[in-house]
Amino acid sequence: MEKKLILGQSISKKILKTLEKRVKKLKSKKITPKLVVILVGNDKPSTSYVKHKGKAAEKIGVNFKLHHFKETISGKGLIKKIEEIQKNEKPNGMIVQLPLPKHINEVKVLNSIDPKIDIDCLTNENLGKVISRSHKILPPTPDAILSAISYTKIDLKGKNVVIIGSGLLIGRPLSIILSNLKATVTLCNSNTKKIKEKCLLADIIISGTGKKHIIKAEMIKKGTIVIDAGVSFYKNKMYGDVDVENVIKKAKFVTPTPNGIGPITVAKLLENLIILMN
To answer: Which of 70, 83, 91, 171 has CB atoms 3.0–4.6 Å from 34's, for a disulfide?
Structure first.
């Protein structure tokens, strides 16, 4: 069973080790990478992610600064703060932790970040580069998912991939990236019908909805690769989208939650920071 688990910690460790060396090299030239994270409100998964990002950044020698704003801040007010921080602190990388409260326009806020320091790769400019394949960096979670798929040594060309969840962070960019890699992609949203039937035809299933155990064993055929990129909390315990305990009996490979895509995403985010500095 253990062999079927794709453990994110071991993949992220290798990436972070390389990054630590690259940061040391920069520091020898009197350059210290600076990462700024904007957090709005107290969403539990977001707070947890930000904590992990801060720890990993400090571990490899990156200066990390968190700006935490109340949930009641207006969209205009947040954009003003982001512009001030960029001007005054001159970070090498900046991210706005998503999701933002419902009254704030995410797209406007994300596009207030200078694309040169947009390490989440979510500005219109950087997403456009992903579509046209002229990108320097990829969004961290889709890139982490590619690392997990690469671990399985499957050839993506012509494979049927079903993505559950069409959000800006995972589903939408990932569907474009995988299509560019010649996979056959089905992107499902909350209105998609017959999701189970679609999943049963998939060679790879990727879920990023943040809904506990929506991917069950009866939804997958034997030998499927199942990637879980969703996180939710119930009674202070972290859960993924995939019912790993039962899915693992049929799947070829599964990413668990925790210690699946999460740690790789954090490593990929920091890798983007260093790439954009060069």
So the answer is: 91
